[in-house]
Design the sequence.
């Protein structure tokens, strides 16, 4: 899928909001500036967040709870995680039981993390567009429109 503008990334996030449920992981992978946070912000907006979601780069985990959003969400940025073991301290697997995890930089945990995550990889193209590739696990096959 080609995302022609930053607004297209935001719209994709808004569309994802209709598909997600507690227990899901949406993994957003790609280089700095690729649009990961734009997708996350669109998703949070469509879930009811009225203010712009800050990037969780420094906090690492930014929680959102009802009534601010329609379901509990943890927006996670693992950019500053240097080793997968560090993420264990965040308690993400436990929190996932009743929350949606939106994870930027999931590759910091290694390829084996969250085998059932909807993995969206973004690549930046020379013309300013982004190419999005989705790895769609079985748990998402009936929800992801491109399968």
Sequence:
């Amino acid at each position: 899928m080609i995302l022609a503008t930053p607004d297209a990334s935001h719209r994709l996030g808004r569309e994802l909001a209709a598909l997600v449920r507690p227990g899901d992981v949406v993994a957003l992978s790609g280089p700095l500036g690729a649009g990961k946070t734009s997708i996350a912000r669109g998703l949070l907006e469509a879930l009811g967040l009225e203010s712009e979601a800050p990037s969780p780069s420094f906090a690492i985990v930014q929680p959102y709870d009802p009534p601010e959003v329609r379901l509990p969400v943890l927006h996670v940025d693992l950019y500053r995680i240097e080793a997968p073991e560090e993420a264990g301290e965040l308690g993400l697997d436990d929190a996932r039981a009743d929350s949606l995890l939106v994870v930027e930089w999931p590759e910091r945990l290694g390829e084996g993390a969250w085998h059932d995550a909807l993995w969206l990889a973004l690549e930046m193209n020379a013309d300013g567009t982004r190419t999005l590739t989705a790895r769609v696990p079985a748990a998402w096959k009936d929800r992801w429109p491109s399968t």
Summary: The CA atoms of residues 30 and 122 lie 5 Å apart. The chain has four helices and seven strands.
